[in-house]
Design brief:
The complex is a heterodimer. Chain A is an all-beta fold. Chain A is built from no helices and twelve strands. The termini of chain A are far apart. By secondary structure, chain B is mainly beta. Classes of the chains: A mainly beta, B mainly beta. Chains A and B meet through strand 5, strand 6, strand 10 and strand 11 of A and strand 4, strand 5, strand 9 and strand 10 of B.
Chain lengths: 114, 115
């Protein structure tokens, strides 16, 4: 079984400041890792994913994440946030294999302040 | 390319009723998954269908069921609705199992309110 912990439920940050959203996971098997974003009244949109290879993954909208196997972490970062980045962010894992079941963290509400 | 389409977007039911939600995946996607999102429990996996077969099921009571048709469209049904079933129900589609990129594409969801 897998579990995902997002350490911060709410992160307020000023516009143009850097931000890091933290994610730790636990799994007895190898997993793929994902970050999704959800804007109000919308579904989930994939920001980035780690499947294999380089541990630094770049995604859309200037976001990046680094996979750290020893610390079982997959933190999301952006060097300079915009008001439009205000949304809820979800970290998720999926075990290797054909099944598509994602285990999500509880989410982090990022609020960018002017 | 059209995205994942879910209908209806909003609906209100009363306790004891049943509801059917529909999901049309992205063209060519054969895997469809359903998730329930609530403020208290977050995002929880309901089930996954692939080629009309349920491949995986989450920890939900038997009142929650689903099916997939030959054109990959999927429906989920909740019978004997309870207040706690009020939630956003998200459908996600992905490519066939042999293309194991792992990416799920989500619809905008069906928001169910049970009174």
């Amino acid at each position: 079984a897998q579990s995902v912990t997002q350490l911060d439920s709410q992160v307020p940050v000023f516009e143009e400041a850097p931000v890091e959203l933290r994610c730790n996971y636990s799994s007895s098997v190898s997993v793929y890792l994902f970050w999704y974003v959800q804007y109000p009244n919308q579904g989930l949109q994939l920001l980035l994913k780690y499947l294999s290879g380089s541990t630094l993954v770049k995604g859309i909208n200037g976001f990046e994440a680094e996979f750290n196997k020893s610390q079982t972490s997959f933190h999301l970062r952006k060097p300079s946030v915009h008001i439009s980045d205000t949304a809820e962010y979800f970290c998720a894992v999926r075990p290797l294999g054909s099944a598509r079941q994602l285990t999500f963290g509880s989410g982090t509400q990022l609020t960018v302040l002017p | 390319k059209a995205g994942v389409t879910q209908t209806p977007r909003y609906l209100i039911k009363t306790r004891g009723q049943q509801v059917t939600l529909s999901c049309s995946p992205i063209s060519g996607h054969r895997s469809v998954s359903w998730y329930q999102q609530t403020p208290g429990q977050g995002l929880q996996f309901l089930f996954e269908y692939f080629s009309e077969t349920q491949r995986n099921k989450g920890n939900f009571p038997g009142r929650f069921s689903g099916r997939q048709f030959s054109n990959s469209r999927s429906e989920m049904n909740v019978s004997t609705l309870e207040l706690g079933d009020s939630a956003l129900y998200l459908c996600a589609s992905s490519l066939a199992a042999t293309q194991n990129t792992g990416e799920l594409f989500f619809g905008e969801g069906s928001r169910l309110t049970v009174l």
